[in-house]
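Help: why these numbers?

___
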Amino acid sequence: MNAPVTLADHLDALTEYWSQRVVAEANGSLFKVAKGIGSTRWHAHEDEDETFLLLAGELTIQLRAGDVRLRPGDLFVIPRGVEHCPVAGDEARFLIIGPSVTSNAAGGKPEWSYNGGTQPVETA
């Protein structure tokens, strides 16, 4: 029998923003925790839909057609091929559900977030 997955523990252990950690798999779908701050780059996934379930914080999914704002408990599906750019003013924690891991340079992950990096401070 499987043990329950404590999402908060997995999120606390993440050292990189916009990276994903697979915590479960069922029926061909991966369940991946991630956290974000700042934004990714604009990108699209040509081979899969991307489903976000926001757990904590606020997350805005920028779409060319307009922004979608998510609050804890909200679920949003970005259809395959739709260009998007997730943005979080403060840390947002979420679950991504899909067939594969998409957190890489092609998936919009910003360069500063690798190796536990911190978001650059913008100056006016």
